[in-house]
Amino acid sequence: QVQLVESGGGSAQPGGSLRLSCAASGDPKSRTAMAWFRQAPGKEREGVASFYYGNGRREYPASAKGRFIISYDNAKNTLDLQINDLKADDSGTYYCAAAGLLHTTLLASRYRFWGQGTQVTVSS
Question: What pLDDT digit, counting tens, does each position of 14-23 carry?
Fold first, then answer.
């Protein structure tokens, strides 16, 4: 089993930055691949960044490149997501996910474990 707890959400203004954190615990073999997903009201959950622990590879969708940065802190066992130059469309609930995969993926269906989510609101 894997436990994921997100933190760091909140309100921010357009152009600002936020850093989300996901505390991960449990079976390391079941969280070799981790990712951040975003879900806005009425929309599907979309992957914004993925990380594969085996080789440190990162994957982003085109919409997130340049503004989203995913990283893993080995000392704290946290998966972090830095979001820069925030836009209103970045608002939504952000979820951390994990799976025992050998590669990155932005497909929600591939992830077995999910956190409860943290809310991000971007408005002026």
Answer: 999 999 999 9
